[in-house]
Design a protein that fits this description.
The structure is a homodimer. Chain A has about 240 residues and is of the alpha+beta class. Chain A folds into 2 domains: about 140 residues, Jelly Rolls (Sandwich), CATH 2.60.120.10; about 80 residues, Winged helix-like DNA-binding domain superfamily/Winged helix DNA-binding domain (Arc Repressor Mutant, subunit A), CATH 1.10.10.10. In chain A, the strands form 3 sheets. Chain A has a 4-stranded antiparallel beta sheet. In chain A, strands 2-7-4-5 form a 4-stranded antiparallel beta sheet. In chain A, strand 4 and strand 5 form a beta hairpin. The radius of gyration of chain A is 20 Å and the shape is globular. At the A-B interface, strand 5 and helix 4 of A face strand 5 and helix 4 of B. The first copy, chain A, binds a DNA duplex (30 and 30 nucleotides) through helix 7.
Chain lengths: ~240, ~240
DNA sequence: CGTATTATTGACCACTCTCAAAAAACGTGG
DNA sequence: CCACGTTTTTTGAGAGTGGTCAATAATACG
């Protein structure tokens, strides 16, 4: 049994903390950032790194929940299904995001790779031990979960109360916020998701998504060089539409 | 009738760990259950207990987030607004539920009492110290947050992909699950929320909620003795409707 | 290339919303 | 306790946003 004092003592012996994991380029956002050399060595013994091919299912709703995942490369979608096949995409996830948290021992949603994906995978049965050794990780996970909860709340407002036009504008702005650096205004976004994915994320049909996007294109708010590429031309205007103003 | 004093007396007879806080009747669900006598004593120094009158606003979206709350008595609604007044209710909360977690130092939603409410209130700036003293609390908060996240995911499926009929049926089943003991099949539910609240929770209008409820009443699935009381007559049938079968 | 899949566009329709009025419930003060 | 005004809920009629169905166009992939 390892006491907090011992952990603290161990940490004090170490020199400056390792910057962050050298196996991915998440930087400070990563789960393993800010650990001491010794903590990092222990951390690596808990972790499994896995690559997942594009379109592969990582796990299904109802599967026994054995791992917690953090994406290092690629993009993942999470979704829930109704018995007749209607689908709701819960989240689009990118490097730095967690998924796989569960309540009753089974996953509550399906996770699917939208691109070739690299993940860090933590066995759930070892999580308590890991948190005991490196308590800061538990705080990080709580923070990440709180962030996902806030995103879910935003999406509930979108799904319940926004028009199709506002939904699509919100989606575009969200993509821009997540995938574009702050500086560059006119930056080409590569969409990892299909129109069908966008529709199932926004609670619309593919036809409505398509019509709304061409609408925005005709108004000069965006450009669509090809189906998988998107250029935000008037971010401010889209933001105003997204917020219902 | 069982007085609080009697409950407290019964509990004081017990050795450590203290079963649970004597100030509320949450039992094992409570944040403070399963603590040792000493831990419980320390716990109480962190906590403020507050009563809130019905319909009072506890905090507003954008307010500086100073406290984390746990409900001990009553019911609370959380909601977000669009600039033109459109409202989405994020959650209906009952005894044992937490709220007030925030990311950037401000609350991301408004919290309003639907009944006279009692809460335990934890200052955020003391939370780290509390977790250091009683690490199990951090795990409990993580668990509660994960549970809220799962509920949010279910609600996203409802908002994005269910019909009005399925939404209202889901809502009724959810109420039954949360507010009724498992044994009693025909149990009268007292609704703490208005039709307008239900509509803003389900992404519908009050008219559609009203029409759907009268529909269920005519079909014999429920009874509505008066506006604030509800009797589930055919739970199974409602469950089937809720799941889109 | 030829085939299969995905995306766009069009015409039509239905579910739910909007607007409006009546009915019921609530609150307040006499 | 009842009369009154206010608010909430129910019910109705009509309209509109987004869905359905269908055809065409573009793209991906062997």
């Amino acid at each position: 049994m390892l006491s907090l004092d011992m952990v603290a003592a161990e940490r004090d012996k170490c020199e400056s903390p390792v910057g962050y994991c050298t196996h991915c380029d998440l930087g400070a956002k990563s789960f393993c950032s800010g650990l001491t050399t010794e903590q990092f060595r222990r951390f690596m013994t808990f972790l499994g790194q896995t690559s997942i091919e594009c379109n592969a299912t990582i796990f299904r709703e109802g599967d026994p929940a054995q791992h917690l995942y953090e994406i290092t490369v690629g993009a993942v979608k999470l979704y829930k299904l109704l018995s007749d096949g209607r689908r709701q995409i819960i989240a689009f996830l990118f490097p730095g995001d967690f998924f796989g948290l569960s309540l009753n021992g089974t996953y509550a949603y399906t996770a699917e790779a939208m691109l070739p994906v690299m993940v860090c995978r933590f066995p759930k049965r070892k999580l308590d031990a890991l948190f005991e050794e490196i308590p800061v990780l538990e705080k990080k996970l709580l923070g990440a979960t709180a962030q996902e909860l806030a995103a879910a709340h935003d999406q509930m407002l979108l799904l319940g109360r926004k028009t199709a036009r506002e939904k699509v504008a919100s989606f575009l702005v969200m993509l821009w916020d997540r995938l574009c650096g702050a500086g560059e205004r006119h930056q080409l976004i590569t969409l990892p998701m299909s129109r069908s994915d966008i529709a199932d994320f926004l609670g619309l049909t593919i036809e409505t998504v398509s019509r709304t996007l061409t609408g925005f294109r005709r108004e000069g708010l965006i450009a669509l060089p090809d189906v998988n590429h998107l250029l935000i031309r008037q971010h401010e205007a889209l933001q105003r539409i997204a917020e219902g103003a």
